[in-house]
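Researcher: Following up on the earlier apo prediction. This time include the ligand. It's pyridoxal-5'-phosphate, with the SMILES given after the sequence.
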Amino acid sequence: MDIFNKTRALFHLPEGMTYLDGNSLGPLPYAAQERVDAMIRDQWGELLITGWNKAGWMEQPSRVGDRVAKLIGAEAGHVVMGDTLSIKVYQALASALELNPDRKVILSDSGNFPSDLYMAEGLIRTLDRDLELRIVEPEDVEAALGDDIAVMMLTQVDYRTGRMHDMARLTALAHDAGAIAMWDLAHSAGAVPVDVAAANADFAVGCSYKYLNSGPGGPAFIYVAPRHADLVNPALSGWLGHASPFAFDLNYQPGAGIERMRVGTPPVIQLAALEAALDVWDMVDMADVRARAVELSEMFITEVESRCPELKLASPRDATQRGSQVSFTHPEGYAIMQALIAHGVIGDFRAPDILRFGITPLYVGEADIMNAVTALQNIMDGRLWDRDAYKVRSRVT
Ligand SMILES: *Cc1c(COP(=O)(O)O)cnc(C)c1O
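Model: Understood. Below is the ligand-bound prediction.
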């Protein structure tokens, strides 16, 4: 049997819904529901405070981090879970800047997710030492790697178009220029094969609620290369990153290695959901997931282009330059997406005109792709999107 029929059966997929938005929020794994139910009942309910020791809650951020490490090619013991991605971006960037104290420029690109750029702005203001955030076009990053760059901070896969940077190549170029390389893997972890160790990345961060299916608000991860792990000085020096939190010293002493990137109390319930959600990755090979995603993406692009010619491909046509999502543009993109959602096909919209579809083979197959294209064609041919109700913007798009 096709392995992806087996993995699909592990997820709750609502009746009548075609879900192409796993790049924003993964669906519910049945195992996560069961694990969370059991955790709440047997651990929170029965163990109460003793759960920190008896149920291993305190080790959970690094125990789960080790499993995420395998998905991003990180060395064991160098990834820890916690907080949200924006917080992890701040921590990694602050530490990266400290490793390159004589330089003033943070280099990023216009394909980065705004929160990463906002966190950099806030950090720059707080540090108040004339740092500059320089944002160039994605294709100009290489040329911008001059001897003034302290940190190259990039998101590998563009959240709007799926365009993918070559992590190993840009990291090597950043190092040649004397810069620290920091990667956001929000749209890479669980989407494409990643090898932070082989790429020689200095820092990496990412979230777990997209392709790793930990549920809304699931914790983020942070990786610090072993060569830096005992040198970095955490900007967010919370008690659980302390060498011995329960000594209650009045002064901060960083914990060993990646442990120092912990901040406060971990989200134990959400980590339980993630821990169960990660089991599916033990059944599949990332290379197979990638091959299947490429196959489904190619099918989607071919069908949409032939049946909905008004939609223009916004993603790279070359699959090797693309993550695990496919995007199209149309001036009425928002209304088209609302109409599509009303017809049971869930993708999302990113301003100003992008219709975005996540291709996630663990639970998306050919029938879903064909359903989505048929719905899209009906909406375009019949101008079904042209209704006031589909043009009202919701808070989350
Ligand atoms: C999804 C995403 C975020 C979201 O950050 P949160 O703090 O988890 O809300 C940040 N950066 C990138 C690149 C993302 O794709």
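Model: The longest helix spans residues 286-307.
Researcher: Noted. I'll compare it with the apo version next.
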